[in-house]
UniProtKB/TrEMBL annotation, chain A:
GO terms for molecular function: electron transfer activity; heme binding; metal ion binding. InterPro entries: Cyt_c-like_dom, Cyt_c-like_dom_sf, Cytochrome_c-type_DH. This is C-type cytochrome. Residues 32-121 form the Cytochrome c domain. It comes from Sphingobacterium humi. The keyword Cell membrane does not apply.
Automatic annotation (TrEMBL), chain B:
This is SCO family protein. The lineage of its organism: Bacteria, Pseudomonadati, Bacteroidota, Sphingobacteriia, Sphingobacteriales. Cu cation binds at residues 85, 89, 173. Keywords: Copper, Disulfide bond, Metal-binding, Signal. Belongs to the SCO1/2 family.
Length: 141, 213
């Protein structure tokens, strides 16, 4: 009886441990940025790019391409702020639809929304800092 | 005793199942209505005349004139949008796409999107948009027309549309998806940006399909 209940209790502890350890490997700050970014995403991006960043047909690209995020890391802030036009390749498919920017968005807000997108739909584990975004924005074409 | 109780319980449950199967639900008929009296076999009968969608002729994505003939014997869902609309349209079209995909190949259901950007959305732009959205048959029509014709038609569907330079994209409109029956009557209007209402639209399309099967 004693062995049985010991086994029982230890399996509960084991399950709890698994549950919490799987929750997140993001830092508190990254999670805060992502949470703030979610609200901005819903307001400014979700209409076209979808609640799961799935995009829409061949009209609006999905936001799930980690390779795109890595390769264009320095341009992401400019795309959010100023929009973009012309052909791009995302997840191996081409898209060519004009995207309106959100010119009123501040550097910190861009850091929030990019952190949300890249950690939620992409596999990034880190956040964008405000300083980093300001530096990127200074170099927008 | 136990067995008696068991079968009694079973009977109660069973009656519950049957009590819930209410008579076939029908969609309401929207719009204004009037009555006409006419004499049949010497007796005066009263008929109700419902508001209907008037005849139209719009250019579609293939530059072909689309009229009511296309929707003969069909139930269709109509809405108003424009291709480079940055606000509610993508969500509305994403949701209507779900309905299109659900009823794809069903000859009794069609879809009709009117562009309210009469300046930019020429047929070839609509065609490109339809292709990119994932529409690859003629079951979903995209049409353009003069400002007067399209905006006038929006009024007939009870959908608000307005050219307005102060809103993003330059045109203001509501995102309703409107069900029209084969008798050209309005049978439902659903906010195309609201998930619950879009689910209701899919449910109600099944209901009205039964009425006209």
């Amino acid at each position: 009886m004693l062995i049985r209940s010991t086994l029982y209790i230890s399996s509960i502890i084991g399950a709890l441990y698994l549950l919490f350890s799987c929750q997140s490997d993001l830092s508190i700050k990254t999670m805060q940025y992502a949470t703030n970014g979610q609200k901005l995403y819903v307001t400014h991006c979700q209409n076209c790019h979808g609640a799961q960043g799935e995009g829409l047909g061949q009209l609006y690209p999905p936001l799930t391409d980690d390779q795109f995020f890595t390769q264009h890391r320095e341009q992401l802030a400019c795309i959010v702020k100023n929009g973009m036009a012309g052909e791009i390749t995302v997840n191996g498919k081409t898209y060519n639809q004009q995207m309106p920017g959100v010119p009123q968005m501040s550097a910190i807000d861009i850091a929030y929304v990019l952190t949300y997108v890249t950690t939620t739909f992409g596999k990034s584990k880190t956040h964008f800092s405000q300083e980093e975004i300001e530096a990127f924005l200074a170099k927008c074409k | 005793m136990n067995r008696l109780l068991g079968s009694a319980l079973f009977a109660v449950l069973l009656s519950g199942v049957f009590a819930c199967s209410s008579p076939e639900r029908k969609l309401p008929i929207y719009g204004e209505r009037s009555t006409v009296e006419k004499e049949v076999d010497g007796k005066v009968q009263v008929d109700t005349v419902y508001q209907t969608i008037p005849d139209f002729a719009f250019l579609n994505q293939d530059s072909v004139l689309l009229t009511q003939d296309f929707f003969k014997d069909k139930i269709y869902v109509a809405n108003f949008f424009f291709t480079h609309c940055p606000s509610i349209c993508p969500t509305m079209q994403r949701n209507l796409l779900k309905a299109y995909e659900k009823y794809k190949g069903n000859p009794k259901i069609a879809f009709l999107s009117h562009s309210i950007d009469f300046k930019y959305d020429q047929p070839y732009i609509l065609k490109d948009y339809a292709n990119k959205l994932g529409v690859d048959n003629d079951q979903w029509q995209f049409v353009t027309g003069t400002k007067q014709a399209i905006y006038g038609m929006a009024d007939k569907y009870l959908v608000y549309t307005k050219e307005d330079a102060s809103v993003p994209g330059g045109y203001d409109h509501s995102g309703y998806l409107v069900i029209i029956d084969p008798e050209k009557r309005m049978r439902g209007a659903y906010d195309g940006t609201n998930q619950e209402q879009v689910d209701k639209l899919l449910e109600d399309l099944d209901v009205i399909l039964k009425e006209y099967q």
